[in-house]
């Protein structure tokens, strides 16, 4: 396994890349006095990349990597000996390339420079072409932007400085797209996806306290997990928000819906696992959106899923933006593809509707305006707030609660996160659309346990850092079961309702 995924952070890649290839991972603006922004870049060390290609004697890159991704999606027992050897060679190569996550931290005066390099649309959509980044441990002048270089999901960063960033050469882009792109990966049809979800039971909804990330699941009548929706945790500069030692429910073998490819929505597949079986989530079926702008780390993660015995079913949504599945428990589960251009805005939302027309809505990071035409404006029994409570980019109608006395709005975030989630604007807008936030009263919200319609995994105050997992029903608050099922292969207690 690549050292970037080491859960201790002690065995992650050391140092930093002097020169790296990378793509935008995210762009977050913080409303502080200096108008700070964070630009995340998923990158690979150029020197290690080129040396490894020579060491592994990949003379014909097109042949090796096109064949690799074609073979990667086939059943192992259908491959020839030569094909298996080729797979093993590229797997070893994936383990030995130096992957880094770079976070450029700038102020208001730095934004014009960043916009001139990437373009405003790339920053808005968090999708960019391949870039070449040059870094140094010393700062030559005060205009050089500070960069935190993380050699692993949970490692401490090295503080370096941005010397130069340019668009990669066309030849390099072609090579990088061969290695780190979903372009040649097969799509899965709606019928294939429906077949994997038909046995889901949605008696209860659970949201786990994972820090600055998201991990939710649908539970059966006896609290066993029947479907995961995201399996994330805090990473990189928000790794400190993780719930230390948390092991998520793994007693059954349900599929995992990945709302989108942001790291804090899948890193729990490495961290929130039992020591006895650290591949337990990676060897599942993952249903995820096709994204042609992910970086090296995301592709290496997907390769880990398949290598571990799991499958990645990509939903392209070109023929339909909504898949409806009639469940055996009588409810209807819907996957809804966001209509936006960016990674967050084109993610997969999940809705469950019961026989009384009450709905649960799980949003991932997609804002309501990108799914609103495919969801009802009212009648929501429970809903996760998009993007951990981030500020909405524009005004839009929010789904409103049902008319009954029982409804739940869920905030999943980590105390002390660097983005200041949840944002006051997000809280205020939900209050406007009928969600009672109890003690969370703007402009100073989030410092207490909210009460009323709202459940949260944390507060802004360190003495209420982890509030614990929560469970939601359809018509009334269920009695929290503690450990979700009797098999007890986890410690992810559900203590709020």
Structure, explained:
The protein has ten helices and 21 strands. The chain is globular, with a radius of gyration of 22 Å. The chain has helices spanning 46-55, 61-72, 81-96, 111-118, 120-125, 170-179, 190-197, 268-271, 296-307, 424-432; strands at 19-29, 37-45, 99-106, 131-136, 146-150, 158-167, 204-207, 215-219, 225-231, 256-257, 285-289, 311-315, 322-326, 332-337, 348-353, 359-362, 380-384, 408-411, 454-456, 469-472, 494-496. The chain has 497 residues and is of the alpha/beta class. It has an eight-stranded mixed beta sheet with strand order 12-11-10-9-8-7-20-21, with helices on both faces. The chain has a seven-stranded mixed beta sheet with strand order 13-14-15-16-17-18-19, with helices on one face. A six-stranded antiparallel barrel has the order 1-2-3-5-6-4. Helix 2 (61-72) crosses helix 3. The model has no long low-confidence stretch (mean pLDDT 92). The longest helix has 16 residues, at 81-96.
Q: Percent of residues in helical segments? A: 10-25%
Biggest sheet descriptor: 8 strands, mixed
Mean pLDDT: 92
Based on CA atoms alone, the radius of gyration comes out at 22 Å
Structural class by sheet pairing and helices: alpha/beta
Q: So how many helices? A: 10
| Poorly predicted sequence stretches spanning 5 or more consecutive residues | none
Which of globular, elongated, flat, extended, rod-shaped describes the shape? globular
């Amino acid at each position: 396994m690549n050292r970037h995924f080491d859960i201790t952070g002690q065995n992650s890649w050391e140092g930093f890349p002097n020169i790296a290839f990378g793509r935008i991972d995210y762009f977050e603006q913080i409303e502080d006095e200096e108008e700070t922004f964070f630009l995340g870049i998923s990158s690979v060390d150029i020197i290690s990349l080129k040396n490894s290609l020579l060491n592994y004697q990949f003379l014909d890159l097109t042949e090796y990597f096109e064949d690799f991704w074609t073979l990667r999606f086939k059943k192992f027992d259908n491959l020839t000996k030569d094909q298996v050897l080729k797979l093993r060679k590229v797997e070893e190569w994936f383990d030995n390339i130096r992957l880094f996550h770079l976070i450029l931290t700038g102020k208001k005066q730095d934004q014009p420079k960043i916009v001139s390099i990437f373009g405003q649309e790339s920053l808005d959509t968090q999708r960019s072409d391949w870039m070449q980044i040059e870094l140094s441990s010393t700062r030559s002048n005060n205009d050089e932007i500070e960069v935190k270089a993380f050699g692993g999901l949970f490692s401490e960063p090295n503080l370096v400085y941005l010397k130069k960033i340019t668009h990669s050469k066309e030849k390099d882009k072609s090579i990088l797209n061969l290695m780190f792109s979903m372009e040649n990966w097969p799509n899965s049809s709606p019928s294939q996806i429906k077949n994997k979800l038909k046995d889901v039971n949605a008696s209860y909804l659970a949201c786990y306290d994972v820090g600055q990330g998201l991990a939710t699941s649908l539970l059966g009548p006896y609290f066993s997990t029947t479907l995961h929706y995201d399996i994330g945790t805090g990473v990189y500069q928000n790794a400190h928000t993780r719930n230390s030692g948390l092991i998520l429910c793994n007693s059954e073998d349900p599929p995992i819906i990945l709302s989108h490819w942001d790291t804090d929505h899948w890193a729990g597949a490495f961290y929130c696992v039992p020591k006895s079986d650290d591949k337990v989530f990676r060897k599942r079926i993952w249903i995820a959106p096709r994204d042609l702008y992910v970086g090296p780390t995301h592709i290496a993660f997907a390769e880990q899923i398949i290598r571990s015995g799991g499958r990645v079913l990509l939903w392209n949504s070109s023929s339909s933006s909504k898949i409806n599945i009639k469940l055996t428990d009588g409810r209807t589960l819907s996957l809804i593809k966001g209509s936006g251009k960016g990674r967050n805005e084109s993610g997969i939302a999940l809705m469950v509707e019961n026989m009384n027309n009450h709905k649960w809505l799980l949003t991932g990071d997609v804002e309501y305006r990108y799914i609103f035409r495919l969801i009802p404006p009212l009648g929501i029994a429970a809903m996760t707030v998009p993007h951990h409570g981030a500020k909405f980019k524009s005004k839009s109608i929010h789904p409103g609660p049902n008319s009954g006395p029982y409804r739940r709005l869920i905030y999943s975030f980590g105390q002390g996160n660097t983005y200041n989630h949840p944002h006051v604007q997000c809280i205020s807008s939900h209050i406007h659309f009928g969600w009672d936030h109890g003690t969370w009263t703007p402009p100073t919200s989030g410092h207490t346990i909210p009460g009323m319609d709202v459940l949260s995994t944390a507060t802004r105050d360190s003495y209420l850092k982890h509030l614990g997992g929560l469970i939601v029903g359809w018509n009334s608050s269920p009695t929290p079961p503690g450990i979700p099922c009797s098999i007890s292969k986890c410690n992810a207690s559900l203590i709020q309702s």
